## 1
Amino acid sequence: MTSTLIRGRPRHATSHIAVRVAHAVLGGVAGFVWLLLPGMTISAEDPVPVAHAGPVVVAGAAERDETSVTDLLLPLVAVGAAGVLAAYGYVRRSRRSRTRTTPGVVSVRPPVPTGGDLERQARTALVVADDSVRTSREELSFAEARFGAAAVAPFVRALRAAETELAAAFAIRRRYEQGVPEDEVARRQALVGVVGRCAEAGRRLDAETPAFDRLRALEEGVGEALEVAEGRFRELTARTGGAAVTLGGLGGRFAASTVEPVTGYLEQAKDRLVFATGHLNACRQTADAGDLERAARHLRAAEGAIAQADVLVTGVERLAAGVREAAELVPAALTGAEAAIAAARGAGPAGVPAGELRARIARAGGALAAVRRQVTGGSYDPLDALRHIARAVEPLGGGRTGVVSAAALLVARGAVGAADDFVGTHRGAVGAEARTRLAEAARLLAGRGPGLALADQLAREARDLAERDVRAHGTPYAGETTTGLSGAVLGGILLAEDPDAGPPASFGGPETRGRFRV
């Protein structure tokens, strides 16, 4: 301790004091000389005094006058030295305050984000992570078609891991929207958790991107990959025509509301195929010219459009199959619901007062009567009829098994599928709120328990919110009516980062999904 401290003060502090004293003495000397100069020159006739005359004059003056310059010099020197020292110290302190890097004096921690900042970060993270997962799933299908399931297995595992993280993020977000947790600090932590889960989902995909690119090797040649894409394109062209015929048959037999979930889908599918046509042709031309990097970019754009056209056509085909199945199930579901009402009259749900039970039975009976009138009155919506049947008997504790349960599952599956198709093909405009409800609906559907009715409700809400987002977003590149560019941007096929609509989205997370940019 004695080697480093002097009277409790660090040695470096003592050295600073010595330096300050030296500066003070220097300032005093400077002031002394400055004060002497007038006395040395004021009575001289020559501009420069004679060398030997200075001391004699001063000594003589001191003997003649007790109130000489010497008497006034010391106070003035002291004041001048103090002023010089104070000014010097102020400059030194100012300079240190500007350049100091000592932790604790100038904070090295970033500012704490506000609640609004965390909200925006969480919503953005969910959208980007969901888009990354969807795009990666789409491109994996092309890679698997060329190389087989075994070759893409590592990437499928990465995708599953990313999906798990994303599902957890959506679950946290859903609870947050419901007010859980209530504590403000805990709510901020929940949002941080959403961002963290999304970041991990993206990291899982980003980590596999180099290996995935080595597998596909598009920038070394697009020949076989282009053949796979063109094969799917030709298949979709044929399916689109068949789906149009099927959809027309549904419209003639059932109510107009039956086909509302897929209204405009075939037109959008054709729009995506037009976009794919242009990029498939450009891919072949640039490949023939030896520009393999640009050919790969065109191929990815075409693949994204083909994948979305497939989603749209499949959505029409799935709806048609679901409507036919629902129409066949309606009579049996009505019979099962009547049996559930009869059982409730004998022994209703535990804890329900008798008056409330009678009211529930009356409401269920009225709902079933309305469905019977629709079915026998002409055109109706079979899926909507099953929805009313399942909801009618749910408050009675019935419908959890048997035909009514099967009806509820069919309805929920159709609603979740329709919402997922819409979000996926309009992902360039759909926000986090719709995606969160859709994720919760999918979770409830996978459980296949008493939450099927809620799954159906949330899926329909998600679809409504997604349509609202699309209306608010508007139509990008509205003037491009012949190339399909507007639909490609709205569908997230192109990332819309540049004036020319940006690069095509590819397998990977936020760091790598736009790597095919110019």
## 2
Amino acid sequence: MSRKKLSKVRRADPFFERESARYDFPLPSREYISQKLADEGRPLAFAELAELLDIAGSEREMFQRRLGAMEREGQLLRNRKGAYILPERASLTPGKIQGHPDGYGFLIPDDGGADIFLDQHQMGKVLHGDRALVRVTGIDRKGRPEGSIVEVTERANNRVVGRVFVEHGVVFVVPENRRIAQDILVPPEKKAKIKPQSGQVVMVDIIEQPTKFSQPIGRITEVLGTYADPGMEIEIALRKHDLPFEFSKAALAENKALPDKVRKADLAGREDLRDLPLVTIDGETARDFDDAVYCEKKGRGWRLVVAIADVSHYVKPGMALDQEAMARGNSVYFPRRVIPMLPEKLSNGICSLNPEVERMAMVCDMDISAAGKIGKYRFCRAVFRSRARLTYNQVWSWLSGAARPESDIHIALQPHLQNLYKLFHALHKARGVRGAIDFETIETQMLFNEQGKIENIVPVVRNDAHRIIEECMLAANVCASDFLAAHKQTCLFRIHEAPGEEKLKNLRSFLGEFGLPLGGGDDPKAKDYAKLLEQIKPRPDFQLLQTVMLRSLRQAMYSPDNVGHFGLAYEHYTHFTSPIRRYPDLLVHRAIKAVLAGEKYTPAGDWEEIGLHCSATERRADEATRDVENWLKCFFMKERIGEEFDGTISAVTAFGIFVALDTIYIEGLVHVSELGADYFQFDNIKHQMLGERTGQRFRLGDRVRVRLVRADLESNKIDFVLAGPQQVPPKKAKKRG
């Protein structure tokens, strides 16, 4: 159907222009669908709704998918007859169940309203992650809306990883995900192939979901091993967080059919940059090289070329490899193991920019002024040959004068590296002028012995070679977002919204106690944060103030609606530079190629839904790696029970304080009952616990001395108690390298 033929009904959609910009054949917007249902004032069957909105022919299948998406997100409901209704008309709130380890839970409403408390009795009907309709029945003792589950609309848990317990002949599995507070009963089977034993880590299929009258029932389908088995922490995390870790047969077959090297036929229509001395600069242990850089002087400024592996040449829409990449969303980096988004033949082979081999790339070629301002730029499909695989430490040793290059290749590259370094200074200065926020945080790395056990946890030292590549990637990402926006090609922007009203209010209240103002009034900019950060750097309480400022910010995410990137102080920003390990980057490459070809790119699915999915897979990866790291830290600390450590209060909660240790970068809890013989009141605005009788205060950023009393592998919890005199010297600030 052409746009010209769209009926008056469709053109009356208030969001018609927005949908037209996103899709060649726009469907009615979600808002318009809801409005039409509201105007009708009665439930409508699919055929009635399609006729009302003038949906016909091949559009009906796409329209059905849109209604399905609205239903999944709680924007629509279907009654017992299958007709569509608006949830608010039924006085029901749709949302997702969030369980708590103590047995109660909440419904997180789809419309962003207040969370609805669900007591243990209500939570007996559901498991964490399920979707449900809830009716608000009153207010609980804490003033929160309390509800009753009317209907479970979607079950989230079909398979669960957990640990077997056998008590008095009764077998049950305790889920590893502590938010699933219900045990899963495993009834005896005469012909069962698996004879479970207490302590085993298993996969259990849920064959009966929980109801008002019964707990969940399951069947053990796989024994993974025991807690002590090497790598078990990763096996558990993969299954607990539902991370895809095995490629389908179809994807592996496609992967096998891919070429091992660039073929002549692949070079058609590509620019030949094989004479340009591009290089890769990565960490010592990196195996997938997806970006190469080159810089030369141009007038008073520079020419910067960033070449990114052309993954989209090999991974096409509709392929099983593409579906796998979409499902994974990103690669996941565990200590000692990587779960790649794409198979190794792609990520470490034909799409890895290895030295002295031909590789295909998407290239961003930029002119940058002496002041670090990006001028003209262009994108092109190219073929090139990386001159060398360099490491951050190697490059920094040359730039700092700590070492001299020895090989002829490395000597020949020095002028280009010097140009990159000068360009970096200009770009970094422009970052300051722009007002980007530059928080000082410490990243850590686990060092393992030959037996696979942690030997030490050390800080990762960043040098200017890291920052050179960071600034080059930022520049390319900005150009990509500008290019797509200028050509009105919808894509996934990397957005970072400004702080919310409530968090901003709490931050100002906290800073007020220190006599510190945050500029910008009701609408502060990144520059206001950056200015305050610079002002407080010399203070002894800098870490405290920086932490509170950092926690006032929102989480970055992917969205087709460009609201800018607050932290980086960019009006538009996207991810272009890592298509090997991030699916949004792969989509951005496809979108750029479409524009270069004079076409429009539309993915298989809604841009907004894909953005939400990729944001969710990113958080899933973070949670899984955090679980693994916490388990490894517990294992590391088990041998140190009774030892004392100096540390800093890194978080304050109603149930105690978390302390980050100075020397081994591990965090643990001092429970409120261990703070002293007093009643301690939690103040979430001042980030402190205050004793009612003694006035003793424990505040975020305070220095404390603690003793390790427990490191529990089953719960991944490390517990401390206060130890010795509490006059702990302030931690010395680390100089940036």
## 3
Amino acid sequence: MTRKTFAALMGTTAITFMQPATAQEAFDLDTIVVSGSLSPIEAERSGASVNVVDAEKLSTTDTTVIDRLDRLPGVSSTANGGLGASSNIQIRGLPARYVSVRVNGIDVANPSGVQNQFNFGGLTPSGISRIEVLKGSQSALYGSEAIAGLIDITSYRPQELGFSGDFTAEAGGNETYQGTLNMGVKSVRGEIALTYGRTTSEGISARAGDPEKDGFEQDTLILYGEYDLSDNVTLGATAFYRDGSVEIDRSATNNSGEVDTEETGYRVFGEVRTGPVTHTLSFAFFDIARRDPGGFTPRFDGERRQFSYLGSYEISPTTTFNFGFDRTEEEFQAGAVGDNDTNSVQAELLFSPSDALDVSAAIRHDDESDFGGKTTGRIAAVWRPVQDLAFRAVAGTGFRAPSLFERFSGFGDPTLEPEESISYELGVEKRFGDAGFVKATLFHTEIDDLIQFDTTAVACGSGFGCYNQVPGTTTSKGIELSGEYALNGAVTVYGNYTYTDAETNGARLTRTPKHDVTLGITGEIGERVTAEADIRHVADIVPSAFAPANNKVGDYTLVGAGVTFAVTDRAEAYLRVENLFDEDYETAGGFNTPGRTAFVGVRASF
């Protein structure tokens, strides 16, 4: 596949897509998405494919965030055990190294990992108010890693003037306990919010065939605040801290081991409005320290610093021009040391030639300190020929820079070049008034200049092989279907289906389901009780080449159910059961997944 430039995709197309029941409605002008463009935009006017998950669905229906994201169309995951174990997300069949993850604007991908990616294993709903999942190659907006898409996480914010908050406490199987306290103060000029969460679990055995349980514990602290110094100047800051420990099974004959991970991040920003132009300056910092005593590499340290400027010029009510630049510095220590600097410039034009059509075009150039520049682009459009009908199209190029580990470790090659991608989406959405909707999305992504571990490579001198640029193309294509319909004022049914054909040079991508379907129903039972049940079936999965011969990677069906009782207007109690029929399955060969597990909890606001 030839190298792609922004000019090469100006006439191509694709679509947006949102998940039923857990997603905001695409035609709701009051719904704002922040990830689909460089400036916030109404969901109706975004050509980008964005799913939105809110805090209520996260806090009462799933133990971890990744369990909820698994129900979105085009999203799947793998886990090396239970709660806290290493867990990776996939978007449209593409692995986690192609997914960018941000928390309150902070890039939280691990700079010290084998690839720059985020581990979802310990991410619980503590302090999270909203998640946006943006699909397709998005490097024109977010730079490296955003080939499959972006996951943008927003922490708790107070919704009422004055002091307010909420808390959640739950207990469940495997001696799992979680608690979260959110509180904040909101005024007409600003707000401040604080979250503390704690999770402990005796867990399950990570490795199949081993009866010894692998526990997990974690503390989470998040702070957010902003204040309007005047009508034209706003200052803000956010910080988070996660400290977790998970027990692991090192091998089939050694079930001892514990990995401790400490993450610290903060971001400070200032916003100045000068007439039609808004200027935002920010500095973000992320540090991760992972300790694995007794492991082959006992210490992993990574650090990232990012300086950014973004300008947004409202040229007219129908035209906005966004522009900016940033500098990112990364370094790592994991048995070796390395660092990298990237300077980036970008621009985006949002244009509405009529009430029925919205178009956006973005371009970005990233200049890496070692391997030079990379230019990416994206064009998106949404056309509404009649009320309640929309056609969406997106095309974008992307890239993934080789990680510091792939370049500077004992198995690395400093001469590696970035992987490159191009993606297309095309789709349609039809609404039926306020009762429901149906949506369909066709998607296609190609990645070339692939970086893989090559046992024949000798550049690193390891004697076992090195990371290398290998020939071939990774292709992921398929269709996403979803719908939701209110049968009456109290009961809603919803569902989605994703078909994914993902391969490299004709060989199927491992751990990637070809078929993934979710069906659910939610409704009121009486005046104070609501109930929800869903079923997810995953089929046609190829296990990794490293999976043991007796692995259980394959088709599986999961059923979940829950009921919520409104004790008062501000307090509720809930019960949920995950894996109701105790399905015995694996997403990573040789690693267990939880069986039937029940949880009870309370949630209250004040």
## 4
Amino acid sequence: MTDTVPSNTPEISVSDLSAAIKRTVEDAFGYVRLRGEVSGFKGPSGSGHCYFRLKDEGAAIEAVIWKGTYGRLKFKPQEGLEVIATGRVTTFPGSSKYQVVIESLEPAGVGALMALLEERRKKLAAEGLFDAARKRPLPYLPQVIGVVTSPTGAVIRDILHRLEDRFPRTVLVWPVRVQGEGSAAEVANAIRGFNAIGPDDDLPRPDVIIVARGGGSLEDLWGFNEEIVVRAAFDSAIPLISAVGHETDTTLIDFASDRRAPTPTAAAEMAVPVRADLIAETNGLGRRLVLSVARGMEGRRTELRAATRALPDAERLLEAARQRLDAASERLPNALAANASAHRTRLVRAAGRLSPALLAGRIARSRDRIETLSARAAAALAQRTELRRQVFKTFSERLSRSLGVYARTQADRIERSRERLDSLHARAPRALALILRSSRDRLAGADKLLAALSYQGVLARGFALVRDGEGRPLRSASAIAPGMVLALEFADGRIKATAEGEAPHTPPKPAPRSAEPKGRKSGEGQGSLF
């Protein structure tokens, strides 16, 4: 037997070796940016985490995205998409392999974005979201125009100025972010919000919606390529104009909208006509209408004169009728006498046939005929009554058998219902307790949220609320005059004070002007929103 040569190398466990390798890898590659192609991506697993690989021409590395990180990603991984992943390299001791834990993900350049955009366009087009047959015409002269855009950019000013020049209308602005994380959800919510306005709401419902944004790169305009925005534009019951970017920029909302404008200014021009042109056209049509009516009346007057000259004289028309009337008047006495003589002769002949014996015979024959018909009717009635009695007897027997079967069926249904009622009665206390617990938790959460948002929490941290003598809050020192009676509210109570000294003179800031009110008269200029 061969003796084993002793060694002085210390022994370590597999777990210790794996932990040492893990520390070495994480220390050396604590933060990396990898460029590669997504492979083996099948979506989130049952736990919500995502497992796939990043590969290039020569190698592949396992990748994982935890559930919380995946929900915050702006771009979701897709099979075959080239991406740039940022994260940290670590090891998984359970299978002795290394992997990258991804914390952020972005497409690898414009080419990847264009590939993703084309794939999404084909998918939505296959669902019919870009069908031209469903696009609706824009209203010719909308009363209210809804604008979805950033309230601080130059886009809304261009739209308002163009509407003011062409045809002032009421404008409702729904402020949103037009780029960055969360912008797509805000734009979609704004479109759905305009559609949710009802006839009884305080704000008027827009007749047309303009979704506008200035120019930018493909990444800046990416929010308008998101599926949530495209579906909101497709579902909009109000006609929608997309005015995103410049004339050369194209986003997916352009295909789903009813009209696409090359610029936000062009969208305003599509929404309303030019008021001066309408007035001139109306005046021209009015003048043409007056001239047409005058020419028509003159033509009818000329035709009437020509027809009057062609008519014969009235005396000549009545001559023949008058002569026929005279001839009939001369023949009338002789005709009346002959008619009376003929009727007298017929009356005498009829009177000879109306003797008492003749009438008695006719009455006797009619009586015999009536008695015969009465006997036949009684026999027929008795026969029909007996036939109906047999039919009713048959129906009664069938009904008795059916009632027995129905009674047994209903008894079975009542028994099953009683068993189901007992089961529900047994489950009711547990369900009620669960509902009460859930309601109690929601009430506790709402109470905490109310406490967090209340201004009294701010007072408890050492601040004070200043009001004037009428109880109105004061937000600046310029609103306080010397000698003014003030009410100071602290967390533990209120006190009154008197202002001393001289307030600093700060020029008041101009108050922002809101959109034109609902009751504004037609034709007045559009007010500024800033």
